Amino acid sequence: MLLVEALLLKVLAIPLLARIGWLDFTTQKISNRDVLLLLCLGAGGLLLLSLQSGSWWDMGLSALAGLLLFVALFPFWALRKIGAGDVKLLAVVPFLIGGSDLAVFSVLLLVFALATAVIVKNPFMLPAGAFRLVVQHLDRKGVVPFGVPISLAAICTLAFLIYRSLMVASSSGILNQLN
User: Fold this and answer.
1) Which residues contact 118 (CB under 8 A, 6 or more apart)?
2) What mean pLDDT value characterizes the chain?
């Protein structure tokens, strides 16, 4: 039953990540409240999974990865190369994803960050409505919202983890036992 509750916390994080991505795109702000809520959802899910498995390895790995990301990105914030909200969001994502699945998130983050760079350099590749929105935003703000690719990568990783968990649960007969 703890697995279902942990999955529910991951599902609840997806709309919050979408909200963070949209607000970062439109306002260049990632609120501390949203990041703290993500931390609570992620830590709660990891806690439930750790209680079920009896191993605290993933919780410790997530905490270490979050701390390392925060320490590594803090100088970039101090040099004004990345926003404080982006640093906090990246430090919280390991709790949400889990330490053992950070490779999936890292690959997706690279893909979405490269796509963002290509769109910023060549906005003509977008459809007309999206082109206007992106160009107006970049003219107004002059900075690229890095919270958008972070949020997209986290959403896709969570969707993959939820799908994988459901496939494992259905193939092992756990879902039949719950009915």
Assistant:
1) 125
2) 86
The candidate with the shortest Cα–Cα distance to 89, out of 168, 13, 175, is: 13
- For residue 96, give the nearest of 56, 163, 47 by alpha carbon: 47
Q: What is the structure's pLDDT at 167?
A: 85
**Burial (Cβ within 10 Å: 0-12, 13-18, ≥19) of residue 152:** buried
Q: How far apart are alpha carbons 96 and 152 in whole angstroms? A: 13
Which pTM value belongs to this model? 0.85
| Number of Cβ atoms within 10 Å of the Cβ of 129 | 8
The answer to whether residue 139 scores a pLDDT higher than 60 is: no
Which residue in 94, 92, 117 sits closest to 106, CA to CA?
A: 94
